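Hey,

Quick one before I head out. I ran the complex with S-adenosylmethionine overnight. Inputs first:
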Amino acid sequence: MRSEVRVAPVFRTILYAQAWEDPEVDRMALRIGPGDDVFAIAASGDNALAFLLDEPRSLTALDFNLTQCCLMELKMAAIAALEHGELLELLGVRPCRRRAALYRRIRDALSAKAREYWDAHPEIIERGVIHAGRFENYFRLFRRFVLPLIHGQRIRRDLLACRTLAEQRRLYDRRWNTWRWRLLFRLFFNRTVMGRFGRDPAMFKYVEGDVAATIIRRAEHGITATPARTNWFMEYILTGNYQTAERLPPYLREENQPRLRRLLERVKLVNDEIEAFLPSVPAGSFSKYYLSDIFEYMSEQAAAALFAELVRTSRDGAILSYREMMVPRPPPAALREQLVEDAELGARCHELDRAFFYGAHRVVTVRKQPAGSAAASTRAGAAG
Ligand SMILES: C[S@@+](CC[C@H](N)C(=O)[O-])C[C@H]1O[C@@H](n2cnc3c(N)ncnc32)[C@H](O)[C@@H]1O
């Protein structure tokens, strides 16, 4: 199996310097614990590192984009070697004039490939790596050129200062939801502009329907129904950084750094396509899977083949957690017996996801032993 989108040029540079998916809902879905071997799409590394906080036995983070792997490696080396303030400075959360010097302090801990990449891109280090992705750049364009035409600084500050959802709802209805908001947001977050500047047209190949109309509905949900007090996604989009300790993603919180340092050795970072990697590992290798929204970019047939590999590489009772942005990719009917969806939990994850771009969240349990089989009933008997 090969990935359909791997050749898109966009996957040769950093596309996501931060995670734009809320790791807390995946943690709720996956309930990771000490017996787990976790498989995670690496992307920026932020969410894989958040899952590490749940202390799985091992965590395999994979991405076919080498630059994403280099990014995750850099973040891991920085967590391991720098003080918390320095970590925030190097990554670009806090202002800093000594990023090159901080990079030199962690450089030797990197793999040869990551070192080569970062040595060749001092300009990204200088700017702060969390701002480096094409997707973050898209938000920068929005913040610089579009948002000022919609709303001034004051109302943005007021939104972030809301302490309750009721206050957010009131602010949205009375002040935020203007004709300019609706018009300009739709013009910027449509399929063409997003495909050209934020993602890649290849990522929309299987998308049908009005992308902009869908995204504005989701933005309304994000603004009115997820708590601004802790929403670092909202803060970054509106201000261009994380401004407060309360709105930092888990991997950057000071209280989590000592634990992460201790757990980093459990991470295995793999630069490969999931379609090629899974067939190379033994059956039953993993118990929890964080799959981002990778099914979005593949045909139904390709997704079905990947689901079959996920079943093979799963242990009985394994859990898959994944999102759909625009393209529905439920587990295939042919695997109905083995892939059991928890629609209620998926809906709750979707509702609570503070990164509000997604259409659905799916949580699926892998049943290797069909319910009622001899092995399953023996186990149930033993448990009872
Ligand atoms: C799936 S993307 C999604 C990010 C975001 N939710 C969005 O929709 O824009 C996250 C990461 O998955 C990686 N990725 C996508 N398809 C992959 C595949 N088939 N194998 C390995 N990595 C893949 C990309 O390189 C990227 O870093």
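Residues 134-247 form one domain.

Talk tomorrow,
K.
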